[in-house]
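Problem: given the chain below (192 residues), write out its structure.
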Amino acid sequence: MDGGGSPGLTMRRLAAELGVDPMAVYHYYGSKRSIILALVDAVFEAFPAPDAAAPWQQQVRAWARAYRVLARAHPLLVLAVISDPEAVGLAALHASESLVDTLTSSAGLEPGDVAGAVALLADYVNGYALPLAWTGEGVATDPISTALAGQPQERFPAQRRLIAALDGAAPDAFELGLDVIVAGLEARSRRA
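Solution.
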């Protein structure tokens, strides 16, 4: 999966990698989809739980960062997960147990807020994983700067000023987004 995604995973190719007859693979897994689900189960079962002694906000951040590490390590598997409802459910069972517990018991959120927060955090990290799945390594260049280079100088002045003010420094948008999400969850927690 890591090398070629779902299209690159075939029973024949897997059998060749294992040095066995393709029928031997079918003996254990009846289809390519069952192999993918087994991979999802194995990878997400190893998802690390945040330190339960840490404040809940740190646990939420640790969860998101751990999921980002997993998505960077296996972007094509994550892409397969988000396109298959059964795989989503399987991955969520493993990865989200500690997050649900944290948001319920430590943050004190209402059940609807917990469910929404888990979905929001997963979707947020998945949004960062998609470019990795498409390119194999993420977006190497700033796509806005690249697009601006082909535009007349008088177009998009606000974005040109922003890029000039950044002076080549790439902001960590992932951490900024995580700050915003945690701040929103803190506000919901105070209301609960």
